[in-house]
Structure prediction request, 985 residues.
Amino acid sequence: MSSPADPLLSVRDLHTGFPIRSALLRRKVGTVQAVSGVSFDLPAGRTLGLVGESGSGKTTLARTVIGLAPPESGQVLFDGRDLLTLPGADLRQARRQMQMVFQDPYASLNPRLTVEQIISEAWLVNPGVVPRNRWATEVKDLLARVGLNPDHADRYPHQFSGGQRQRVGIARALALRPRLVICDEAVSALDVSVQAQVLNLLVDLQAELGLSFLFIAHDLSVVRHISDEVAVMYLGKVVETGTTEQIFTAPVHPYTQALLSAVPVPRPWAAPQRKQILLTGDIPSPVSPPSGCRFRTRCWKAQERCATEEPALADRLGGHSSACHFPEMTVPA
Amino acid sequence: MDRPTEQVLPQSAGEAADDPIGPAGDLPPDDAGRPTAGRTRGKIGQVRIIASLSVIALYVVAAVVGPILLKYDPVATDLGSRLKPPGTLLPGGHTAVFGTDQVGQDVLAQMMQGARVSITVGVATLVLAGVIGVTTGIAAGYFGGWLDAVLMRLADVQLTFPSILLAIFVASILGPSVGNVVIVLAISNWVTFARVTRSQVLGLKNRDFVDATRTLGARTWHLVTRSILPSMMAPILVVATVELGHVVLAEASLSFLGLGTPASTPSWGMTIANGRNYLSNAWWISTIPGIGLAILVISFGVLGDALRDRFDPRLRSM
Amino acid sequence: MDNPLLSVQDLTVRFRTRAGTVTAVDQVSFDLAEGETLAILGETGSGKSVTAQALMGLVPRPAGQVSGGRILYDGTDLLARPRSETRRLNGTELAMVFQDPLSSLNPVFRVGAQIGELFRRRRGASRSEARRKAIELMDRVGIPAAARRVDDYPHQFSGGMRQRVMIAMAIALQPRVLIADEPTTALDVTVQAQVMALLAELKAEHRMAMILISHDLGVVAGVADRVMLMYAGRVAETGGLREVYETTGHPYTRGLMASIPALDGPRERLAPIKGSPPDLMRPPAGCAFRPRCEFATGICGTERPELMPVPARPESHRAACHHAKEVVADVVPG
Prediction:
C-alpha cells in the first residue's frame, strides 16, 4: 500500500491516437494524435482539474486512463502498478478501484433498467464485492448518500430530472467503493443551480470517503472551485500545470492566460484590471499539429524558435511547470 | 439499389430531442413538455395493431382448432363431389363453404390444414433465421474489423443468390420436406436480421450507458446480453413481424412450384397450384386460398409497420 | 419607454403534451428600444427560447400555440398578421441566430450560396452581385480568406466559423432586431469570446437592437444593457444589468449568482438553490419559486406575485417577489 505522499495515479508520457482509414480499402492513412505525451500525478485524496477546449484531448485522456481507449504508448500507474502491462485478474482488481462519472446524464444511464438495477450492475459483474442479499440495502444507502430518496430505487431514469440522474451516475460510480473517480464534464450538462448542488455533493463525498478526483471540465470557474491542482491541455499536450492558486493567479503560459481572460464573469465592472485576450482562429486539427510549439499558430508571442523547437514542460517561472519558450507573469495590455 | 438497413439507426426516440421547452437539462421528470402532435396518429396505430393482430389470431385459431373439427385426409378422394362450387351441400352431410377441389376434397378443410403448415414453417424459419442473423450481426457489429468484413460480404453474396435456385438445389439433394423448407427459407432470410442487428450494435456499442457498464468491469458477454441486446429487441421484433409475412408467402411459392412441402402435408401453395388447371371452371380452388394467403401476409405487413411506428418512428425507411 | 421598437405584451405560449397542457411562456411583457440589447436569462424550461421562437413566428405547431398577448413591432401586432407576412419581416426587420449552427445551415449548399440566396430572393440581386455581397459579409464577420471559403460547404467550417456564417446571414439584410438564442453555448470559451466581441461590434456599427438569450449570467454581462430573468415561464426580474446583478430583487436571481463558482477570491462552499425547477404541468400555487425559496412566507403560497418596482430604481428595475425589499436588503447570501 502506498503512503500518502505517493501519487495514487501517475500518468507517464501517454500517447493515444485513432487511426484514420481510407474509405475504400480501410487502410490506415494517418493518425489523429488525441493525446501525445501527457504526464501528471494525482495524489490520493486530492483533485486534479484537467482543463482544455474541445480538441485538447482531455476526454480521450480520461478514456485511456479508465480503459475505454487503448493507448499507443506510455504508462498509467495506479497505486504504483502499470495498468497497461498488468495481467488480466490483477487488472480487473485495479480497475474496480477506478470509476467514472459521465457527462450526459441522459445517455449514461440504461433507459431499460431501474435505478436499483443500474447501481447493482456493478456488483453483478464483480461478484464478491457485495453479497446479493445486501444489494437492496446497499442501493438505498448509496441513494441516500448522493441525496436521492432511497424509496425511488425502483424508478427508471426517465422519471428523474437531469440533476437527479447525475446523482444516480455518481451513486453507480461509488458502488464499487473506488479510490479514484474520473469526472468527465460531469456537471457541464446541468443548469447552473443544479450544477452547484452536484459540485457540493462531490466535495462532501471526497471528504467523507477520501476519494481522489480527476476532474475534467471546460469551465474554468468550476475547475478552480473543486481542484487542488490543475493541468491545462492544448492539442493533446499539457501546456501548464501547478496548484490551483498558481494557475489562476499567476499563469505564465500564453494559452492559459488567454483561456482565463476569456471566461465570462458576471460582474466585469468589479474587476476593471481584467483584460480580455482575443485569440485568433481555431484550435488546429490534431491530424497534422503545428511543428514545435502547438500553440504558436494562435500565439501573439510566437517567434521562429517556436516553430522549430518544442518547449518542454518544466519549471520556468512562478514555481510551477509550463511549456513556453517565453513565459511571462503579466498579460500584455 | 436501395440498402436502407445499412444506415445506423438512431436510438430510442424521445429524451431530450423532442422537448419543446429547451435543450436537455433539469426539466421536470416524466413526460412534461413532450409534444403530442402524433396523438391521433397514435390512435390509428393502436387500431392497426389490434386489427392486424385479430386477423392473425383468427388464422392461428383456425390452424389449431380447424383440422380437429373438419377432418382432412390428404389421400382420400371423392370423385362424386369434385369441383363443387362454394356453398354446396355434400353427400357426407356438411356444406363445403369454400367448395371442393378436383378430387372432391373440401377446400376449407385443406386451407385450415395448410395454415398449420404455413404458420409452423413461418415461425420455425424466423426463429432459425433470427438466431443466425442476430448472432452474425452482433459478431460483425461488435467486433468489427476483418470479421465484420467477412460476415457482411457473405451476406451480400447471400442476397445476390436467388432463393428459388437455392431451394431447387436443396430439394433436389435432400428431397422435399418441411424441415428442408425451413432450412432453405432461413438461409435466404437471415441477412435482414444480420443487417439490422449490426447497425443497431454499431449505434449502441459505444453509447455512454454501455461504456459506463464497461467501466464497471463488465465483460463482452455481459455487455452484449445485458446492455446491447435488450436495447435492440424492438427493432428486431419489427423486422421479424415483417419477415413472417414474407416467409409465409415464400413457403407458398416453393410449394406452388413443387419444391416445398411433400404432398402428404398440403400447404396453401400446393392447393393453389393444384387448382390452377381448373381456373376456368372451378375458380375457387386457387382463388380462395390465394385470398386467404394475401390477407395473412398483408396483416403481418400492417402489424410490422404499426409496431415500427410505435417503437421507433425513425425506422420508417426500412 | 416612450416609443419602443419592439413591445411584447402578455405573451403566452402553450404546448399540448400527452400528459396535459404546459404553459411554457406565461404573460411575458417587455420592451426593446432601438439599438438596445436585452438579455433574456433562465435555465432549461424557463421559457426563454420559446419566447424567441414566438417573436420569430417559429413556435412548433401544432403542439405549441401562442395563446395570448401581442407582439408590437413598430406599432403593428405581428401576431395578428398572417404567417406569410411574418416570414417577409424575418431577415429584413427581425433576424435570428441559433444555438447550433450546423443544423441551421443546409449541408448540401455552399456557404456563399446560402448567404447570397438572401440577396437574390429578397433584394433581387444578380448571381455575381450576391456572391460579392456574400464575400463582403463573410469578411465582415471575421472569416479569414473569405473569397476562397465562399465556395466551401458548412461541414468544412469549425463551430466558431459556422456561427460566424450564421451571424453573416442574420445581418445580411440589415435587420433592426437581432435575436440570438444561446449563440455561444456550443462553442469553446476562447471562441465564445470572439463571437461575443463580434456581436458587440456589429451592434454598435449598425445600431441594431439585440435580444440575447442565454443561461449564462456571465456571457451577457459584457454586452447587455438590460436583463430579464425568467423562471417557469414567467418574468422573475427585469432591469438594468448592474441593477439586477448588484441590487438583486428576486431570490431566484440571487440563488443563481450564488451558484456560480467565482474565478477569483477565496474558494467558498457554493450556496445553490435547493430542489429543482417545478413541473410546468403542475405548477405550484402562488409563486412558482416558493418551494425552493428561503424567503417564502404564507402569502407566497396563495398569491402569485406580479412584477413590482424594486426600491432603489423603481422606474426601471422590477421583480416578481413579495419579499423583494428583504432580498435587496440582504444581498450577501448566508
